[in-house]
Amino acid sequence: MHPKALLDATAELVKLTLKFDHPADTIVSRYFREHRSLGPRERATLAETVYTVLRKKLLFDHLSPSGSGPKERRMAILGFHGPRDFLLSALSDQEKQWLANCDSIRKEDLLERHRHNLPEWLVQPLKDQLGSEFWALTDSLNQPAPLDLRVNTLNDKRADVQKELKLAGLPSTPTPYSPWGLRLESKPVLAKMDAFARGAIEVQDEGSQLLSLLLDAKRGEMVVDFCAGAGGKTLAIGAAMRNTGRLYAFDTSTHRLDAMKPRLARSKLSNVHPAGIAHERDERIKRLAGKIDRVIVDAPCSGLGTLRRNPDLKWRQTPQSVQEMTVKQAAILQSAARLLKPGGRLVYATCSVLPDENEQIAAAFTAANKEFSPLAALEVLSNLKVDGAATLCSGGETGGDFLRLWPHRHHTDGFFAAMWVKN
Ligand SMILES: C[S@@+](CC[C@H](N)C(=O)[O-])C[C@H]1O[C@@H](n2cnc3c(N)ncnc32)[C@H](O)[C@@H]1O
After folding, report:
1. Ligand 1 centroid vs 228 CA: distance in angstroms?
2. Span 3-116 CATH architecture
3. Which CATH architecture group holds 147-203?
4. Is ipTM > 0.95 here?
């Protein structure tokens, strides 16, 4: 595609995503479906440019008024992903001069908000938790995430799959914490690979793998994944149970549960039972009350730990939406807890970095449910022989009460988990 045409297309897509009426990944996928002639490189340019604009929106909002032409074009020029010569050949002399002026601005001379590119309401809760590490976090949130795979250890060994991928030209390294993970050095299309088709690999962030590991589900147990979605954690848990026992995958979204079906078929798991529920107090929950060994609540949340992948979330979420989410989270956790039998384990997890959705939900649950004793994440991770377990935890007197993953420290998305045992 001619550089001018590609820049025009990029500006068009930037305009669509900046409306924030749908998630950015939905808008980008729809655009690609409607423009089938776009090649892989053009798609990469379009998607990466849009994501850069979303990541650095405050900075680009600040720089763009000094340029000319439609705003979305100026934003696309500032975030353009691709060789500089290619971009320059699409620009007027005036635009080239403006871009050179923007490039010459030193980072140190920018206001804080133009460096962190976060909405103001998010800044203080992060600074309160991280102090001077706040800047390392914002730098890593503004980078794309690596591509992590989970090896289905039901049928394949991680080392064998690593060799197989290498032979196919895809070097990877074992993830440092999850025993099931491989981190790829590139971002290939995996769907046509044999390892993918036979269910040996699934795309899953290492942090998400660790949440499944924390449940520590055993052979033959009765387990519930209460918010199973498209089954990322369900599949990991089902494999950890060695395809035995019974693993119920609940969700209120049958659409998401449907998306689990092809993944389940590839995985060769037959111990998973997906079931749509109307809400967290569904009849099905009542029938299973007191019968379950382990329950994981991977709660609906703001997703603010996944800004590397979903940078639009910081502009789509608000303090009010987070507050509404916390009410839902508390209700789901309370209802899911009824499923457990004495001695059973409850895991509450989110991909948020906000204490309101994490430690505060956990503290309120502990205070209201004397029949549940908190279980320290550090103890569980140490028993599971996870390397550097202490560095993955925070909270409480020992600093080990909760799993707390951060992109800048652990190269995972931002995840939280709290655990309890039913007395
Ligand atoms: C964080 S996502 C789950 C992701 C999934 N566990 C995975 O690993 O891919 C949260 C899920 O909770 C579901 N959900 C929302 N409200 C619910 C409720 N009241 N009961 C059960 N699931 C609910 C959403 O449909 C969504 O799929």
Report:
1. 6
2. Orthogonal Bundle (1.10)
3. 2-Layer Sandwich (3.30)
4. yes
